[in-house]
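testing teh design pipeline on a random one, pls ignore if ur not involved
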C-alpha cells in the first residue's frame, strides 16, 4: 500500500513489484503481488481500471487507519459503532478529541 500511497498516479502490478523489490535480497514474485492486489481490490481497499492494455491500481483508502476502521465496521457493523459511541460517552477526554477532529461548530 505504501508504494501506491506514494504514487501520484495509478500503477500497474509490474510497477508495484519493481518498487517493492528495490534493495530486496529475495525478490517478491509478480504473481504474489498480483494476488494481494486483487484481494485488496475485492475488499475495496484498491480501485482498478484499465485505461489501456493493462490494469492499473490506486488506493481507495487514505491510510492504514482507514483500512482498519473499514474492516471493523464490515465485520461488526452497528455493534462496533455502538461500542465506539459508548466509549465516547464514558470518556470526556475522548469526547473532546472527537469534537476537535470533527471541527468547529460540532
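output:
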Amino acid at each position: 500500500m505504501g508504494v501506491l500511497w506514494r504514487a501520484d498516479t495509478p500503477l500497474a502490478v509490474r510497477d508495484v513489484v519493481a518498487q517493492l523489490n528495490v534493495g530486496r535480497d529475495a525478490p517478491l514474485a509478480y504473481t504474489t503481488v498480483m494476488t494481494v492486489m486483487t484481494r485488496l481490490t475485492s475488499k475495496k481497499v484498491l480501485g482498478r481500471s484499465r485505461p489501456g492494455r493493462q490494469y492499473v491500481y490506486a488506493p481507495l483508502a487514505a491510510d492504514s487507519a482507514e483500512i482498519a476502521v473499514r474492516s471493523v465496521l464490515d465485520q461488526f457493523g452497528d455493534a462496533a459503532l455502538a461500542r465506539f459511541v459508548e466509549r465516547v460517552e464514558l470518556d470526556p477526554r475522548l469526547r473532546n478529541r472527537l469534537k476537535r477532529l470533527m471541527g468547529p461548530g460540532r
